[in-house]
Design a protein that fits this description.
The complex is a heterodimer of chains A (720) and B (271). Chain A is 51% helix and 9% strand. With 720 residues, chain A is of the alpha/beta class. In chain A, helix 2 (58-71) packs parallel to helix 5 (160-193) and helix 23 (613-622) packs parallel to helix 25 (647-660). The two termini of chain A are 47 Å apart. Chain B is of the alpha/beta class and 271 residues long. Chain B is globular. Classes of the chains: A alpha/beta (720), B alpha/beta (271).
Chain lengths: 720, 271
C-alpha cells in the first residue's frame, strides 16, 4: 500500500469518526480536536469525586487522570504511522461544567454582580491557554520527566502543597506511561494477526517505538512525532489544552539526522507529519525569526506544508511573516490555502507582534520567541502563563449600561454617553483584573496544570504550579469584544442625532427599547444602520474604533494587576459573538436585540458595497492595541478573488501591507459562496467541508445553525 | 478639475496588474447590448431605485419638488419623465432604496481616496485604473486624474473602448502606463450592430497607439450567442500579433449584471 492510499484511508476514517461524533453528540461549535468516540460499553469511574460530583485539588486531578489513562481504550490503526487517539476530557467530567464558565471551588460572589452587569468572561478557573516547551519533553522523554517529578517531590518534601502537586505529577506521568504501554501492546497484538507484510512491519515498528517511548526520549523523526502526539493526546485528555509550538524547528534535528543516516526519504517524513497533523489539530507555527532574528525556515517547514496540503482536514498551522523571511514559504503557504480552501495556514505579522510585546518591558530576543501557538494568540513556550483568549469584556454590554444610564437623564448627548461608557469600561476592566488575581491566587488548588507543568520552565524548579508562581513570566490577556458594534453605535448617534439632527435621542431610545419592532421604528433603524461606520472608507469612518482602541490600551496596556502581574489587551471575541450578542438588547447601530455582536477586529458584515479588502485591512491595522497580543483579521474570500489572475501574488501583497501597517494575525477562509449557502441549508451533503470559524477550524457540519449563519454572514462576495 | 463618476471600486484584481482602485466615469458613446454598466451610458446623474429595499415610508413623496414619486396603497411609483436628477429623494431615503448614480467629484478629493491604498499598489505592482463608461468621453477630467496620479508615482491604467479622436487618446499617453484596450467585435457590421458605432476608428487608434510605443493589454469580452465565434477569436489574435507593445490578450467572460441594473434604472430592455 502506498502512502497515498494510506492517507486516503486515514482521511476517510477521520471523516467517518467525525460523522459518528456528530450523530452521538450533535453540534459542538468548537475545534475538531481530533478525538474519537470511546467504545459504547466503556464506563468512566473516576476514583475521586466530591459529594456534588465535582473534584478539585492536585491529589484528585492526579488520581483521576491516572485512572483515565490507565483505563483509556488503546487505539491503533495499522495504516497510521502513529499510535493512539484521545477519547475523554477530564476537565469536562466535573459536574456542572460549562465551556463559558469554569468550575471553581472558591467563592467569588463579590465579583459576580459586576461580571454579570458588564457580561465579563472572567477566566476564573479556566485552564491551559498558554504554550508548553515541547523541547523539554523531547529531550527528557517520559522517563526523564518522571525522574524530574520525583526529584522535585524529594526537594520540596517539607512543603505539603508541593508534595501533593508532585505526587500528582508522578501519577500523571505514570498514567501516561501505562497508556503508552497499552498502545504498544495493542500494536504488537495486531501485528501478530496482520497478514499484509507491509502493515505487519508497520505495526511492529509502531510497537517498538511505543515500548521505547514509555521511558526513553525519541531519536528519530517518527519517534519525535509519536512523542508529540502522546503529549498532545494526554494533555487534551487532561484539560483540552491545544497549544502547539515551532513545529519545523522541533522536528528539524530528527529529520536531518534520519536523512544523514539514510533512514528515511522525504516521502516518509511527509507521511509521519501527515499522521501527526491528523492526530490532532494543535496550533503550530512555521518559519519566523529565531531569537537572534535569523529565519527559521528549513526543509522541514516545507515538508510540513506539503503534509498539510495532503491532509485536507482541520488544521491549525500559522506562518510567521517578517522582512527577512524566505518568501518561498510565504508563497507556498498561500498556494496551499488557495488550493485546499480549508482555512489553513494562517499568517501572523512578526513586526507588530515583536514591537508590541517589547512595550511590556521585554527584549526583542524574547519577543521573537513569542510564537503563534493558539487560536488567536501568541505565547512564550514553557516560559509564560497567560489565560490567553479566555478573559473577555463584552463592550456591547458596557455600551448598553452607559446608554441606558444617559438616556434616563434629562438632556442626553454624545459627550455624556462617551464619558459614561469610559467610566463603565474602566470599572469593567477593574472587575476583570480583580478576577485575574483571584484566579492566580486559587487556581493551583482548584485545577493544577499537571501536564503543562511538565513542559514549563519553573514549576519543577520552584515547586509551584505554573498558575501560582511556577512560570517565569505572567502576561495576562484581556480581550475586548464587539469593537465594530460599539464603534458603529457611537458613529450612528453622532451622525444622525448630533450632526444631522434627523433623529431625536428620545425616539432612538424608544426604538431601541422596542427592539425596532414598530413599523415607524424600521425607518429609524435603517437610518442608523446606513450611517458612517468602521471600515466604510469614508472620512472619519474609523474614528470611533480608534477611540475605543485608545481607551482599551490606556486602561489596560502596560498595566499591572494589584497582585503584580502584567496585563495585555487585545481585540478578540473568539466564537463568543453569539453568546455575547444574546445578552445585549438593540443597539444604535441598528443591530437588533440578541443578534451576534461583531467579530474580533472585523467590521460589521456589509461594511462596503464593494467589500474592499484594502479598506478592511487598513481599518483593522489601525485598531491594533499594540502590546503583543492580537486583533486578528478574519477574512472570507470568495472564489471570484481566488480565480483572479496573479491571486497568490496579490494576496501576499495584501497581507504584507497589512502586517507592515501593524496587523498581527490573519485568518482566511476561501469559500465558494454558492456551496457554503447550500451547505448551510443542507450540512449533511458536505461532511468534509472545513471552515475557519475564528482562530480555529472546524467541520461545517459540527457547527450549530447560529454558527453556520455567522460564517455565511461574513462572506465577502465580489460583485463583478 | 471636476468630472462625473458612477462608482469607485477599491481592491480590484480584474482591471490591470496587481491591486487597483478603479474609478468608473459616467458617459459612453457605445451602446453594447451586453453592457454590464448601463448606468454609465448617460453622462448625467440618474436615479437608481431598488424596490426590494423600499419600506414605503413616503419621505421621497414629501421632498420631491417635481412630484415624481407616488405611494398608493403601499405601491411606490416613479415618473422618471419628470425627474430632473436633483437627488433630494435619495438624500432622504433611509433604506437606500433610492440612490443617485453619477456624482460630481473633483480630482483633489478623488486622489485623497486613491492615495489611501498606495501601500497595496506598491506591494502588488498595482495602481489606479480609470474606466467607465468611456473615460475619453470626459477627456479633460480623465487627463487631469491620470496626471495627478502619475505625479504621485501611482501606476495608471486607462480602460478604453478606443472610440475617440486620436488626439484625445494620444493626449493620455504621457500619463498612462498601460491601456486596457477593448475589442468588442472584429466584424464591422456586427460591431455596429452590437455597439452602435463603427469598428474602424477603434482599430486605427489601436494601430497608432502601438506605433507610438504605448503598452496595451487587449481585452475581449466573449458574449454567448453574439461574438463567441472562433473566427472572431482568431481575428483578435491576428490583430494582437501585429502589435509590438501588447503585454497580453485577455478574453473576458460575460456576466449578466447589466440586466438587474437596467431594472434599477427603470429600463426594462436595453436601447
Amino acid at each position: 500500500m502506498s502512502y497515498r492510499e494510506q492517507m486516503n484511508h486515514l482521511r476517510a476514517k477521520k471523516s467517518e469518526q467525525t460523522a459518528a461524533k456528530l450523530r452521538q453528540l450533535d453540534t459542538r461549535n468548537e475545534d475538531d480536536y481530533g478525538w474519537v468516540l470511546p467504545p459504547l460499553d466503556f464506563k468512566v469511574e473516576l476514583p475521586c469525586r466530591d459529594q456534588d460530583g465535582s473534584f478539585f485539588g492536585s491529589h484528585a486531578w492526579g488520581k483521576n487522570f491516572r485512572w483515565l489513562m490507565e483505563h483509556h481504550p488503546p487505539y491503533v490503526d495499522p495504516e497510521d504511522a502513529l499510535a493512539g487517539r484521545w477519547m475523554f476530557m477530564l476537565s469536562r467530567m466535573r459536574l456542572g461544567y460549562k465551556l463559558e464558565l469554569a468550575n471553581f471551588a472558591f467563592d467569588y460572589s463579590n465579583l459576580k454582580s459586576e461580571q454579570l452587569k458588564y457580561d465579563i468572561t472572567c477566566g476564573i478557573g479556566k485552564d491551559a491557554h498558554f504554550a508548553p516547551d515541547y523541547q523539554i519533553g523531547l529531550d527528557c522523554g517520559w522517563g526523564g520527566l518522571l525522574a524530574k517529578a520525583r526529584e522535585a517531590r524529594r526537594k520540596f518534601d517539607a512543603d505539603p502543597i508541593a508534595r501533593e502537586l508532585f505526587d500528582a505529577e508522578i501519577d500523571a506521568v505514570e498514567g501516561i506511561q501505562c497508556w503508552i504501554r497499552h498502545l504498544a501492546e495493542c500494536a504488537e497484538e495486531l501485528s501478530a494477526s496482520e497478514r499484509d507484510p507491509e502493515l505487519k512491519r508497520n505495526l511492529q515498528e509502531m510497537a517498538t517505538i511505543n515500548f521505547k517511548l514509555i521511558h526513553e526520549p525519541p531519536e528519530t523523526l517518527r519517534e519525535a512525532c509519536q512523542w508529540i502526539a502522546h503529549f498532545n493526546m494526554a494533555s487534551r485528555t487532561y484539560n483540552r489544552d491545544g497549544a502547539g509550538g515551532q513545529l519545523d524547528e522541533l522536528l528539524r534535528p530528527y529529520y536531518e539526522c534520519d536523512v544523514a543516516a539514510k533512514r528515511i526519504t522525504d516521502a516518509d517524513a511527509e507521511f509521519y507529519v501527515f499522521c501527526l497533523l491528523l492526530n490532532d489539530p494543535h496550533y503550530y507555527q512555521l518559519g519566523g525569526p529565531d531569537e537572534d532574528g535569523k529565519d527559521q525556515t528549513s526543509r522541514m517547514s516545507y515538508l510540513i506544508l506539503d503534509a498539510a496540503e495532503k491532509l485536507q482536514s482541520s488544521c491549525n498551522l500559522t506562518i510567521r511573516v517578517f522582512d527577512g523571511m524566505d518568501t518561498g514559504l510565504f508563497r507556498r503557504g498561500v498556494e496551499v490555502l488557495l488550493k485546499n480552501k480549508l482555512g489553513y495556514p494562517r499568517f501572523s505579522g512578526d513586526m507588530a507582534l515583536v514591537k508590541g510585546f517589547k512595550r511590556n518591558g521585554y527584549s526583542a530576543e524574547l519577543a521573537r520567541k513569542r510564537i503563534a501557538t493558539g487560536c488567536n494568540w501568541m505565547s512564550l513556550p514553557g516560559l509564560e502563563y497567560t489565560l490567553n483568549d479566555v478573559v473577555k469584556i463584552n463592550l456591547a454590554k458596557v455600551f448598553e449600561v452607559a446608554w441606558n444610564e444617559v438616556s434616563a437623564t434629562s438632556a442626553p448627548d454624545l459627550a455624556k454617553l462617551w464619558k459614561a461608557f469610559c467610566r463603565h469600561f474602566r470599572r469593567a476592566a477593574e472587575v476583570t483584573i480583580a478576577g485575574l488575581d483571584f484566579h492566580l491566587e486559587h487556581q493551583y488548588l482548584n485545577e493544577p496544570e499537571l501536564l503543562l507543568n511538565l513542559l514549563s520552565h519553573g514549576p519543577m524548579e520552584k515547586g509551584l504550579d505554573v498558575s501560582h508562581g511556577g512560570a517565569i513570566y505572567y502576561n495576562m490577556a484581556i480581550d475586548g469584544a464587539g469593537l465594530a458594534t460599539v464603534a458603529d453605535s457611537f458613529a450612528a448617534v453622532e451622525q444622525r442625532i448630533e450632526q444631522e439632527g434627523c433623529l431625536l435621542w428620545s425616539e432612538v431610545a424608544a426604538a431601541i427599547r422596542d427592539d425596532f419592532a414598530l413599523p415607524e421604528e424600521n425607518r429609524i433603524r435603517l437610518l442608523l444602520q446606513n450611517s458612517n461606520h468602521y471600515c466604510s472608507g469614508q472620512e472619519d469612518g474609523n474614528k470611533w474604533a480608534i477611540k475605543l482602541t485608545e481607551l482599551l490600551t490606556e486602561t489596560l496596556g502596560g498595566r499591572l494587576t494589584p497582585g503584580g502581574r502584567k496585563v495585555i489587551p487585545g481585540w478578540f471575541s473568539w466564537a463568543d459573538t453569539i453568546r455575547f450578542g444574546k445578552s445585549v438588547g438593540a443597539m444604535p447601530n441598528g443591530r437588533k436585540a440578541g443578534e451576534p455582536i461583531s467579530h474580533g477586529a472585523n467590521p460589521t458584515p456589509g461594511f462596503r458595497s464593494d467589500g474592499a479588502l484594502t479598506v478592511m485591512s487598513t481599518g483593522i491595522a489601525a485598531v491594533q492595541p499594540g502590546f503583543g497580543n492580537t486583533a486578528p483579521w478574519q477574512l472570507e474570500l470568495d472564489l471570484g478573488i481566488v480565480n483572479s489572475c496573479d491571486c497568490v501574488k496579490n494576496l501576499m501583497a495584501l497581507m504584507s501591507a497589512h502586517f507592515q501597517m501593524g496587523g498581527t494575525l490573519i485568518n482566511i477562509n476561501i469559500v465558494d459562496a454558492k456551496m457554503i449557502l447550500d451547505a448551510h441549508k443542507h450540512p449533511e451533503k458536505y461532511p468534509d467541508l472545513v471552515v475557519r470559524v475564528t482562530g480555529f477550524s472546524a467541520y461545517f457540519t459540527s457547527l450549530s445553525k447560529d454558527f453556520r449563519q455567522l460564517v455565511v454572514n461574513r462572506l465577502i462576495q465580489e460583485k463583478l | 478639475m471636476q468630472g462625473r463618476i458612477f462608482d469607485i471600486r477599491r481592491f480590484s484584481l480584474h482591471d490591470g496588474p496587481g491591486i487597483r482602485t478603479v474609478v468608473f466615469l459616467k458617459g459612453c458613446p457605445l451602446r453594447c447590448v451586453w453592457c454590464h454598466n448601463p448606468e454609465s451610458w448617460n453622462g448625467g446623474p440618474e436615479l437608481f431605485y431598488d424596490a426590494a429595499k423600499c419600506i414605503g415610508c413616503g419621505r421621497c413623496v414629501q421632498v420631491c419638488p417635481e412630484q415624481c414619486h407616488t405611494l398608493i396603497n403601499g405601491i411606490h411609483n416613479i415618473d422618471r419623465t419628470r425627474c430632473t436628477g436633483c437627488g433630494q429623494c435619495a438624500l432622504e431615503c433611509c433604506s437606500q432604496a433610492l440612490r443617485m448614480v453619477g456624482q460630481t467629484v473633483d480630482v483633489v478629493k478623488l486622489m485623497a481616496e486613491i492615495r489611501q491604498d498606495r501601500i497595496y499598489y506598491e506591494k502588488s505592482g498595482g495602481g489606479l485604473t480609470v474606466s467607465g463608461g468611456e473615460p475619453l468621453a470626459q477627456p479633460e477630467f480623465t487627463r487631469a486624474l491620470l496626471q495627478a496620479a502619475k505625479a504621485e508615482k501611482i501606476q495608471c491604467c486607462l480602460d478604453t473602448s478606443g472610440y475617440a479622436d486620436w488626439e484625445t487618446l494620444a493626449s493620455m499617453m504621457p500619463y498612462t502606463d498601460i491601456f486596457l484596450y477593448d475589442i468588442k467585435e472584429t466584424d464591422s457590421d456586427r460591431h455596429r450592430q452590437y455597439t452602435g458605432v463603427s469598428l474602424e476608428p477603434i482599430l486605427e487608434n489601436l494601430r497608432r497607439l502601438d506605433a507610438a510605443g504605448a503598452t496595451t493589454i487587449i481585452r475581449v469580452p466573449i458574449i454567448p450567442g453574439m461574438n463567441d465565434r472562433s473566427e472572431h477569436r482568431r481575428a483578435v489574435e491576428a490583430i494582437v500579433a501585429q502589435l509590438k507593445h501588447c503585454l497580453k490578450l485577455e478574453f473576458l467572460s460575460y456576466h449578466p449584471l447589466g440586466k438587474s441594473k437596467l431594472k434599477l434604472l427603470g429600463k426594462g430592455t436595453k436601447k
